[in-house]
Design goal:
- It is a single chain.
- With 268 residues, the chain is mainly α.
- The chain has 11 helices and 3 strands; from the N terminus they run H-H-H-H-H-H-H-E-E-E-H-H-H-H.
- The protein has helices at 3-13, 19-34, 46-58, 63-82, 109-118, 123-138, 142-147, 176-194, 213-226, 235-248, 253-260, and strands at 153-154, 159-163, 169-173.
- The protein has a 3-stranded antiparallel beta sheet with strand order 1-2-3.
- Helix 2 (19-34) packs across helix 4, helix 6 (123-138) packs antiparallel against helix 8 and helix 6 crosses helix 10.
- The longest helix is centred in the first third of the chain and has 20 residues, at 63-82.
- The chain starts with a helix and ends in an 8-residue tail after the last helix.
Length: 268
């Protein structure tokens, strides 16, 4: 099997990466391979990699994209070393480009309360309010929110079981207001969406199916606009707001890393 394909297969099977992520790795490695002028992987030097990154910069790609390309190349060479296909990694000698500091947007408690008040008090509004509470209260990714199942709820114990990236399971805390919002949704709204279908998923569309990422993004944007919030708001904004308020409240960084489901504290 082609070495790139073997590497991609390991990402899918062993690391549980999504199809979209694996395809992005495929594109970047294939583009790099096409610039090697027929060189085999053992023949590639640090200079070849550095020259390739310079080419990307001249083509107008930004530091973050170049950074990611080098990260993909390093991951590939690390795989080749682990599989004992190569004995050296030329990418280790290439420095990552410096990235400009970019802090995510956040909203405070007052804006969060404005969002809750901007939601209609109807079937959809009760559901949307519960989702906003869970996103802000638990710091979930939108993919984790829409994947929540009824079996993941442990409201009496004040926590949820979440399956994050790589299908890694973690437990997150949900506060009193979040618990109340979810219970109200389960009592007053969800039965009207489920209509006896017995769907295992927590948050449902009006057709009784699990919500899509796009629908949640649109809902958050619409509610924030109605609430008059100037900060560009998305589900990820609520996740970052949770992280910021947790740190300001004195939470330990390692504990926050675990709650967010990050693999590295550097990401946190």
């Amino acid at each position: 099997m082609d070495l790139i394909e073997r590497f991609l297969q390991s990402l899918r099977v062993e690391q549980g990466m999504s199809k979209a992520t694996v395809e992005s790795y495929r594109r970047e490695l294939s583009r790099f391979e096409s610039r090697l002028a027929g060189k085999s992987w053992p023949e590639v030097s640090a200079g070849d990699i550095q020259h390739y990154l310079v080419e990307l910069g001249r083509a107008g790609l930004g530091p973050r994209t170049i950074f990611h390309n080098l990260a993909v190349i390093r991951s590939f060479y690390r795989f080749l070393l682990e599989e004992e296909i190569l004995e050296r990694d030329p990418s280790e000698l290439v420095e990552f480009p410096k990235l400009p500091a970019k802090l995510p947007g956040v909203i405070g408690l007052k804006d969060f309360e404005k969002m809750l008040k901007a939601v209609k008090n109807d079937t959809a509004g009760i559901r949307d309010q519960a989702m906003i509470e869970v996103l802000f209260d638990c710091g979930l990714r939108v993919s984790e929110l829409i994947s929540l199942k009824l079996e993941n709820l442990h409201l009496e114990g004040g926590h949820l079981t979440v399956h994050g990236k790589g299908n890694k399971e973690r437990r997150v805390i949900i506060g009193e207001y979040g618990v109340d919002a979810v219970r109200r949704y389960l009592r007053e709204s969800r039965p009207r969406y489920d209509r006896g279908r017995n769907s295992p998923y927590l948050f449902l569309s009006r057709h009784g199916r699990p919500l899509s990422r796009v629908s949640v993004f649109k809902m958050i944007k619409k509610v924030a606009l109605k609430a008059g919030i100037k900060t560009r708001t998305s589900p990820h904004t609520l996740r970052h707001s949770f992280a910021t308020s947790s740190l300001e409240g004195g939470m330990d960084l390692i504990k926050l890393r675990d709650l967010l489901g990050h693999a590295s504290v550097a990401t946190t």
